[in-house]
Amino acid sequence: MGSPLYLQFLSLSLALIYVYSSDLPSVIEAAQKENVRGLSLHSLGRHEEAIDVYLSALHSLSQEIDATSSSNVIRWALNHNLGLAFRHLGELHKSTHYYLEAVKYNPKTARTHLNLATNYHANGLVDDAMSHYDSSLRALLGTRHYYRLAKSFIASHKPPVIYGGRVYKVTNPFQYQCPPHMLAGEDADLFEFRNMTMRQNNWEVIDVMVSLLGNMGQGFTQKGGTVESIAHIQSAAHIIQCQLSRSGDGGVDELKSNDKVSEMKSLLNQLANYIFLSARAGCQWSVLDWSEEFIANINEHELGKNRKPSLLPFDTLTINTTAEWKRIVAERHAIDYPVDDFSFNHLYVPFFQQQEAQGRLARLLETYQNLRLGFISYDFNNHPTSHLSEGLFVWHNRSNMFSSIEMAAYSYGKNDDSLYRKVIANAVGGLYVEDNDESGRFYEIKDLGFIEALNLVREKHSPHIVFDMQGPTLGARPEITSRRLAPIQVNALVYPGTSGSSSMDYILVDRFVAPPESANHFTEKLLVMPVTYQMNFYEREGELLSFADPNVIVRRESEEWRKLRIKEGLPLRQIHQLHGNMFPLEANSAAPFVFANLNKLDKIEPRAFSAWMDILKRVPNSVLWLLEPSSKYRNSGKEDTLKEMAEMHGVNPDRLLFARRVNKFSHLQRLLAADLFLDTFIYGAHSTATDALRGGLPVLTLPSEQFAGRVGMSLLRAVDERLADSFTATDETDYRNLAVELAEEVLSNKNSSHMTVLSYWSEFLQSGQSTKLFDAQAYTRDFERASKAMWEVHMHNQQALQNNQMPLPKMHIVVCK
User: Fold this and answer.
1) Residues 6+ apart with CB under 8 A from 418
2) Which of 444, 506, 779, 790 has the fewest CB atoms within 10 Å of its CB?
C-alpha cells in the first residue's frame, strides 16, 4: 500500500559568507553580521527568529543600496539561508521561492542548486530536480573538462550484464579500491578524475558532489532508469571510498578525525541503501548478494554509534530480517523528530508542566459528548488509501447510531480532483474555509509549515483521536504527528509495521496480522479489530459489477470468460499452439491456467519468483500474469529483466504476460480472466489482494512472521475461516504443491461437472455470500466502538490522576463482536 521510495536527501547546507573590502558600505557589513546572527539562531533550531533576521537584512539592503557584486553575494547568502530555514519548517513553497531568488544573485553556486533540486524532488517534480542537480555538478566542477571527466567516471560505473541484455551484476560499493596509482586497465581520464577526488582536501566539495550524485541516482530510479541510477550512486560511493583510503595519510584534519571517518562510512551506507532500493525497483536481485554486509555495516557504523540508520523504516519491509531489527530502525528514526514538550497525556508530562498541559486538555474534556476523530494522510486522492478508507467516511455519514462521533480529514498531498477525494471531503462536510463557521472539516494543510498545520488542527478541529494513515512512507510529514495533534494517536491502515514513535499510542491490527506473540514487534499498543484491520469499500455505483447476482456468475470456459481473456490478451488455446511444440499436450486440453500476481513489480522477491518458476515448470499448460510498470517506468526494461530471469530458471519467457494499467473499475472486471493469485512472501499483497478477492479471484498466500507478510491470511480469514485453509500454505514447499494441485484439478476437469476448490471459491466470492471482508457498514461500527474504547481508557486515566489515584498502565485493546 505504501510507496516504494521514501526520499531522504543529503547535504542541505547553510551559506556563511564574508565579503572583504576596505571600503565596504556599512549596510552590507551590517547585513553580513545579521546573516551570522541568523545562522546562530538557525543552528539553535530557532528558525522563525532566524527568518525574521534574514528578512530584515534583505529589506535593509533593498532600501539603501543598488545591486553590486558585493551586495549580490550577501543577497545570495540571505536568500539561500531563508530557503533552508523555511525547509526546516516544512514550508517548501516558500523555501523554493527563496532558493530561486538566491540563484538570480549567484547562478553558479552548487549548494543552492542542490538544495533547490531537493525541494523539487520532494514535491515530485523529478525533471526540475534533475536539471538543478546537473547545474549543481557543473557549478561544483567549474570547467567543461572536469564536467566531461565526471560524466565519463559516472558512465564507467554502469553495472555489467551477467545474462541476456537486462540482468546486471550490482557491484558491492564497500569493495571499491582507490590506490594513488592507475589500476590495471583503468582509463587515463577516469584515473585523473578519481585521483582529483582522492586529493580533494575540502570536505564540503566532496559532500556536495556525493550528495548530488546520490540524489540524482534516486531521480533516475523514479524515472525508471535503473542502470543510470546505479551508475550515479556507485560513483558517489567510489568517491567516498577514495576519501576513506586517504583518511590517515596526512590530509586535512577534518578528514583524519574519527568522527569524520565514521560520518563517511555512514554516508557510504546511505549510498548503499540507494543502490539497494534502485536495484530492487529494477528487479536486479544480485544486489542481495551483499545485503548481509550492508546490514552489518549499519549495525556497526550507525546503530552501534547511535547514528540514524541509512535504511528508512519503509525500506526494511522488503528485507528478510527480524521484526526486532526493523523496530530498532524505526525507533532510531523516530527519535529525531521533535516532540511537543506540553503533551496532552499527563502520564508523560513532567509535574511542573502539568498545569499548562491541563489547560490544553480542558476543552477536549468539556466537549466529550461529541468525540472528534481526525485522519491525516498524503493520499486523499486516487490512491489505495482512499479506495480503502472511503467507506469509513461514507458509512459514518449514513449512520445515525454514532451521531456523537465527528470525523475530519487533514490532507497534505496533491489535489487530483478525483471522485475519491471529493467523496471523502463531502462526507466530512466539505472543504474547511477560514473564518467561515459553516465550513467543512476537510483541512488542506499541504502548503502549511509543520507548526502552522499543527496549530490549525488543534485550534480549529481539536481532535480527541488522530489516525495517521501514512506512517513512514513517501510524502509523510512525521514532524507534525510527532508533536501530537491529539491526546491519542493511532498508526492506521497504510504502514504495515511499527512507527517506532512514542507519539503513536496504538497500531490498528487484527489477530492474524499481529497475533499476541508479536506484540513486542511494535512500540505502539495493539488495537485489535474483530475481523480484519483493513477498511474496504466496493459500493461505488458502477463497481458492484453484479457480484451479488448469482445469475451473472462468470464461469471458466463460458462465453463471457472467453471475451475477458481475449480482451486482456490471455491465452484460450493450449501453450504449445502459442509458443511452438515445447510441451506435448493433448489436442483437446483445457485453456491454459493463468497464475497472477498484480502487485507492483518491486514487491517481487527472488524466493517467490523462484517458486513461481517451479510452479510453471510443473504445470506446463500455464502462464504467469504480472502487472506492467506504471507509465514513468514504461521504458525501464523491467518486463525484459523478468523474462530473462524466467529463462535463467528454464522457463519460456513468453509465458510471462503483463497486464495493462487500467482504472479500478476495469481492473475488478478483468480479474476473473485469471485462475489463481500467487502472493509474495516477505511483503505480501494488501489492497491488491483485496481487489483480487472482490473480483472473484482466489489468493494463495504463505504467511510470514511479520505484519507485512500476513495480510493475505487476514483477508482470507475474513472471507471464510474454514475455506481459508485451502489457500494458506504452511511452508514454501506446501505453497508450491498447493498451487500445482489447484491448477491440475482445474485443468483435468474441463469436461466434468465436478466443482473444483477454485471454482467453488470463485463463485462463492462472486455471489456476495462473503460479507465480513466487504461489509463497510459493520467495519465502521467496529471502528467507532474501538475509538470510544480508546477514549474511555484515556478519560479513566485523566480522572484517576485528578483524584490522585493510580492510572491504568498502557494496554492493548481488543474489540469483540
Assistant:
1) 381, 382, 386
2) 444
Q: What is the CA radius of gyration of the chain?
A: 29
Name the phi and psi angles at 430, rounded to 5: 100, -175
The b/e string for 749-776 (b: 16+ C-beta within 10 A; e otherwise) is beeeeeebbbbebbbbbbeeebebbbbb
| Per-residue pLDDT at 543 exceeds 60 | no
| β-strand pairing of 167-168 with 161-163 | antiparallel
Collect all residues with Cβ–Cβ distance below 8 Å to 259 and sequence separation of at least 6.
none
Q: List the grid coordinates of 17.
A: 559568507
Long-range CB contacts for residues 537-544, cutoff 8 Å, separation at least 24: 537/387, 537/388, 537/389, 537/390, 537/391, 537/392, 537/394, 537/776, 538/668, 538/694, 538/774, 539/391, 539/394, 539/776, 540/390, 540/419, 542/665, 543/664, 543/665, 543/668
Distance CA 650, CA 639 (A): 17
Integer CA distances (angstroms), 533 to 340, 365, 529, 710, in order: 29, 28, 6, 12
Distance in angstroms (rounded) separating the CA atoms of residues 482 and 572: 55
Sign of CA dihedral 503, 493, 90, 523: positive
H or E stretch including 726? Answer: none
Q: Are 441 and 408 within 8 A, CB to CB?
A: yes
Q: What is the pLDDT of residues 373-429, one digit of tens each?
A: 999 999 999 999 999 999 999 998 876 555 689 999 999 999 999 999 999 999 999
The verdict on pTM exceeding 0.85 is: yes
CA atoms within 13 A on the CB side of 79: 25
* Eight-state DSSP code of residue 309: P
Gap between the Cα atoms of 406 and 540, Å rounded: 23
Amino acid identity for residue 226 in this structure: T
Helical residues (DSSP H) of 309-371, grouped into ranges: 323-334, 354-366
CA separation for the pair 531, 66 (Å, rounded): 70
State the Cα–Cα distance between residues 615 and 621, nearest whole angstrom.
11
- E-strand stretches of 37-185: 161-163, 167-168
**How far is CA 795 from its chain centroid?**
34
CB neighbourhood size of 373 (10 A): 25
Backbone CA torsion sign across 316, 320, 323, 329: negative
Please, how many CA atoms are within 13 Å of residue 561, restricted to the half-sphere of its CB?
A: 20
At 303-332, the pLDDT tens digits run 988 888 988 899 999 999 999 999 999 999
Within 10 angstroms of residue 431's Cβ, the number of other Cβ atoms is 16
C-alpha cell read off for 664: 479500478
DSSP state letter for 288: G
DSSP secondary structure letters along 213-273 = HHHHHHHHHHTT-HHHHHHHHHHHHHHHHHHHHTTTTT--HHHHSHHHHHHHHHHHHHHHH
Please report, in angstroms and rounded to a whole number, the separation of the first and last CA atoms in the chain: 27
Cβ(655)–Cβ(579) under 8 Å?
yes
DSSP 647-713: HHTT--GGGEEEEPP--HHHHHHHGGGSSEEEPPSSS--SHHHHHHHHTT--EEB---SSGGGTHHH
Torsion (CA) 74, 79, 82, 86 in degrees, nearest 10: -170
* Whole-angstrom distance, CA of residue 250 vs CA of residue 237: 22
Distances (CA, A) of 652 to 152, 255, 574, 617, 637: 38, 53, 14, 9, 18
